[in-house]
Structure formats: structure tokens, C-alpha cells
Design goal:
- The chain is mainly beta.
- It contains one helix and seven strands, in the order H-E-E-E-E-E-E-E.
- It has one helix at 7-14, and strands at residues 28-33, 64-65, 68-74, 77-82, 85-101, 107-126, 138-140.
- It has a four-stranded antiparallel beta sheet with strand order 2-1-5-6.
- A hairpin with a 5-residue loop joins strand 5 (85-101) and strand 6.
- It is globular, with a radius of gyration of 15 Å.
- The two termini are 23 Å apart.
């Protein structure tokens, strides 16, 4: 599986549901999952199904708030990206994540880590790609 952009995000984006401005924009969160097979293009919202267990770790259900790097355009590509996110002092394993709008739980993007990633009594870091027109996590351009 690869990263998935839910169809609901595509329509909600065009209807003005999301604001990716770094100042005054929407708040976005990232939740971790042990299985992402149920997170598909049909996903519409954050779910607790298969979310990493908060029992015995420092991970809180719903995940953590992302720092939005804002919107930019280069080479005719509009893009937005987030700062890397660290879950500190945790013991957990995850295969992927869901980025969603914090105030309404609307799905934005399903991340596939390409396998199980683990932290044992340490930091679990979700590292985002470089914020530019060819690498940013969300990019819009000419077809």
C-alpha cells in the first residue's frame, strides 16, 4: 500500500473545508495505526479502529497536533507540509498514520510507513519530506 488521499479530502478541499495557512488556519492532527488496510480512499474521518494502543505508553488516542509549515507555490505546484512530529518516550509499533482536521475529524491523508516502525521507551518520529514542489507531503499541480 502507498500513501492514500481520501476522496472526501478532495471534495472537502474544493468546498473550502480546510485552511492550510500556517497562521489562523485549521488545526491538523496525526494518529498512529497498527493496521491501515481499512484506511482507504473511502475514509472520511479519524477512527479509533486499529489505532495504536495508549495502554502503557505515552501515546494519547487521537495522536498529536501537527505544526503546519503553511502553503507555498513553486514551479507551478502548490504545496503544504508539516514539521516532523515526535512522540516522546513511548513504547509502540505503527505501520501508518492518518492526518486529519482536529476540530471535525475529517480525513486528509493516510500515510503508509512501508512496514512496522517501533519505538521502545524512546522517541517515535514521523519525518515529513522536504517542503518543496517536488517532495512536500501534499502537492497540487497541473495534470
Amino acid at each position: 500500500m502507498a500513501n492514500v488521499v481520501p476522496d472526501s479530502f478532495k471534495t472537502d478541499l474544493l468546498e473550502g473545508t480546510f485552511n492550510f495557512a500556517s497562521s489562523g488556519g485549521s488545526t491538523f492532527k496525526l494518529a498512529l495505526y497498527t493496521n491501515i488496510s481499512g484506511l482507504t480512499t473511502a475514509t472520511t474521518a479519524y477512527t479509533t479502529s486499529n489505532e495504536v494502543s495508549s495502554s502503557g505508553t505515552s501515546y494519547t488516542a487521537g495522536g498529536n497536533t501537527l505544526t503546519n509549515n503553511g502553503v507555498a507555490v513553486a514551479s507551478n505546484i502548490g504545496y503544504v507540509d508539516f514539521a516532523d512530529l515526535t512522540f516522546s518516550s513511548v513504547t509502540l509499533s505503527a505501520v501508518g498514520a492518518l492526518i486529519y482536521k482536529g476540530s471535525s475529524n475529517e480525513a486528509v491523508l493516510v500515510l503508509d510507513f512501508g512496514g512496522t516502525k517501533t519505538a521502545t521507551n524512546g522517541d517515535f518520529v514521523v519525518q515529513f519530506p522536504t517542503a518543496n514542489s517536488s517532495s512536500a507531503i501534499i502537492r497540487l499541480g497541473d495534470a
